[in-house]
Amino acid sequence: MTVAGADISTFEVAHVTFAVRSSTDDGNRFSLLASGAVNPKDRTRPLFVGHIPRGMAAELRALADVIEPLEPQGGEQ
Hints:
36% strand, globular, 77 residues, alpha+beta, 1 helix
């Protein structure tokens, strides 16, 4: 999706939506939204917004490495 000259990609992770905004005008940013919120307006209001710093991808990969073995196996929920 493109909004005001910026490309926005969204990624659902459990009950949180990561919105990644790519813009050459005012920098690249990300926001976290409560996609599992009961109240619909709370699903579109960001919980956090920040610039994407150098090293963030490596930090997210490290987090994924910790979470992956904790995921349910087989028929578990």
